[in-house]
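Aim 2, interim progress. The first record below pairs a target sequence with its structure tokens.
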Amino acid sequence: MTVKRPTLAQMREMANRFGMSLSDAELLEYSQIIEPYMQAYDRLDAMPDNLPEVRYPRSPGHFPAPSENPLNAWYVKTEVRGAPDGPLRGKRIALKDTICLAGVPMMNGSSIMEGYTPEIDATIVTRLLDAGAVIAGKAHCENFCLSGGSHTNAKGPVHNPWKHGYMAGGSSSGSAVLVATGEVDMAIAGDQGGSIRLPASCCGVYGMKATHGLVPYTGAMPIEQTIDHLGPVTRTVADNALLLEVLAGEDGLDPRQYKPRTYRYTDALGRGAQGLRIGVLKEGFAHPNSESDVDQKVLQAAERFRELGARVEDVSIPEHHMAMDAWTAITLEGLQDGMMWGHSTGSNYRGLFLPSMTDHMAQWRNRADELSHSLKACMFVGEHFQTQYRGRFYGKGQNLMRRANERYLAALQNFDVLLMPTMPVKPQEIPPADCSISLYVQRAFEMVANTAPFNGGLPAMSLPCGLIEGLPIGMMLVGPHYGEMKIYQAAHAFEQSGDWRTG
């Protein structure tokens, strides 16, 4: 097999992009010089891709009709049975449709990826099946995951299970809906700016974004390596802790992982809140768009912790707002560099690459009009700052995110967890299909002010703490690196103290 050689015109085009002034004779000479390298690519092209083995039999499943998918939460229904026994024996689990399930279609919410079928199982899929789970199918997510609302999927909006016509949260919208409605026992979600926690908040379920790198991201479609997370969404804290036990740990294929520390998270259950130190983060409340009833509902939940014997005190971390700005630069420039121009993979890291995904994603260059308004807005910002400012703000964002983490960790020397609203607002109405671009984009990003800052690496969990106007409200608990045990201890104590639906 041979790969295409660059034509003289292509060599000229590349030279112009590089800012080089070369004659045709010089370009032809360079073509001869690089021929041995081209032959290396010929040999690479003839070799297998060295991908993980797929072990459990499955069928491609089916696309459910509207009658069996009233909230538009499913993309594909299937049934992949794992080991006959294990800690998840018989548990039905839905996967966010960013996660590779070999032989089953995957579209990541976008018409660009529609028609793609991966040939591997993500690491966490193998772990779920080895633990006895049944993969029930793929859950709809937002268009390339670029929305905290649930209105951007190419197949239409995903509806809130508590109130039709309202946001289910994004980007893991379908995952949370399927858990909340009981169609599955558990689900896997992804999170780059709140996409586990926001839908958990909107749908009244539990969503854990663990410490960055604790759960391997191998085999899931990324946005930006330093903020990519996968994690559990469940109806109970106990199920959440159990599922994280199965998911967590190094796989040797994900460069996001750096010797993660794992624990038996179910051991945190039943320890109660007595003596827990809870810091109510001042900057997590009263955002410019915060709704006062949401803030009050979460403050009432904080008071319940005090009644349970926890020490509850206010804490101020002004860098919380700075972390949001740092996340903006990291995410928008990083996604443009890696997800878009890098066709979902990028370069400069060791890890599992899926060439078939790269090839399919590359179609976006000829079909860019099909991208969602929210992704287009992000691309304009990312491209501008990458080209006009040479990526300096991406680097500055990473530096300042470390500074923000230092401040969070300094506060967590005095507290076990920090507490704040998951979202500053209640779930909003899904905008009409013919709404303005401005409203579409506003509804995609108006709720991330508290979630996004913790994609700098710290673990954070959303747990339901009450209802307002018939819609769930989430409270977020944040801990230090690998501090999931204290988060689960606090979350379980709160869950067991009373029915959040009547709180």
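The second target in this work package is listed in the same format:
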Amino acid sequence: MSDLIKKSEDADLETMPSFDFILEKEAEQQTQVAEHRAWLKSIKHERPLPKHHYKVAVYIRYFNQTKHEDYLSYHKQQFLDTIGLCPNWEFLGFYIDEGGTAPNMENAKEWTRLLQDCFDGKVDLIITQKVSNVSKKQSEITFCARILAAHQVGIYFISEDIFTLASYYQEDLKDPFFYPSPDWQLLPDDDLALRGILHD
């Protein structure tokens, strides 16, 4: 009997365990993204309107791997020319982080400065080329969009043609899932022992 058990255990060790749970989660996320893209194609898109008064900032993630000798100047001029067509928009400036891919948000100094200017009421519309300029993490983008919307600040992602203050997002923005719960406590900035891993 013990020989049968041993053979069964040996056979189990010769079979690769399944990691399908990871693939299932990725497939579910891809399905949700595909459904959202299909939905976006089916609706009339809303964009920031030229007639609306906006205090506009442009966020650029700069990585000069293009045919243009000074791509940053060329890219900035494109933004200036387009924003110039909207006389009710007040252009406040460029916020530029370097790097080919989006880092963790907390390491992007200009993005952090831009967020602070939004919270201080200086900016109410951010224009950037694409979502991945800001973050590759869906949760970070969603969190930022919701927090900024609470301050009446919108983000317009040009490549994806997404405006976070569009009317069809208003119900989602009111979902309290990402809001702090009443039992949350702010950690003091000067006590590194309490903050622990946040500074790693």
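Strands lie at 54-62, 89-98, 125-128, 154-157, 162-163. This observation will shape the mutagenesis plan for the next reporting period.
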